[in-house]
């Protein structure tokens, strides 16, 4: 064996080991959900989910959920704050709004998290703790957190408790929906869980894992994008008169993407466009945050919040403009290719309705 072959094999083993570590780190919370899967299992979940995400009825349901939450909860809370000249933690308000929305869209359950009293919710606290502790594992040596988990001490003891609480909450919702379906009650297949169950995907573990993944994917990403968007508006008052909400959101997410970095595992030996060779099993990480600030992609004014960069004059009419999107590999805020975000249009729908209402 040549030294080059030996080196390649060692790299392959190393990167495969890294990918296994990442999956192990997140397995307690996400288990076999779509956010923690690869290969055939991921492909199957993607196909099942893609079918449901592309239905007009789901879009209509999402619109109804968002509009109700806006008119009944978010706008009254903001209006009361304005009337009393009180200060709100807008990020917290948007997080509550996002959690209520994603729980209704995913399994038609209303948390009552966005109320004037700003209550705590056991499920939200457990979910947040589970995400936080799972993320903290990345900063610890692998043997350390595994030993803590084996001994049931410290943060790992807490993780076991909150993951159990999140799982039981999700399983209870799944069982209630399955029971309604089996009793032939009028189970309206509007939320994602009901759609999965009605289409024959009734395995409890499968739907529970995928529901938890959807909650994680749909909650933090949208609220993070909205939080940065409103902050950028406050810093750039000139764009408040702009009617181009879509391009303003695109520009906001260019500077502050909800997922600032992401990794992919190489399926087969390949050569990247710049000539870099990658071997099967390697993990390739790309920096979405950095790409949104590269002069080669966005020009010398990359640091400026300028939504107009997404506009182009139409050939007919000097005063008519059209939106011109960037290719998803230059602007991978919603990923690209086969793994492009299923909820992209849903996210834009929610954000535009929130922005216009506020």
TrEMBL record:
This is Cytochrome P450 94A1-like. The keyword Oxidoreductase applies. GO terms for molecular function: heme binding; iron ion binding; monooxygenase activity; oxidoreductase activity, acting on paired donors, with incorporation or reduction of molecular oxygen. Belongs to the cytochrome P450 family. Keywords: Heme, Iron, Metal-binding, Monooxygenase, Oxidoreductase. Its cofactor is heme. Pfam families: p450 (PF00067). SUPFAM superfamilies: Cytochrome P450.
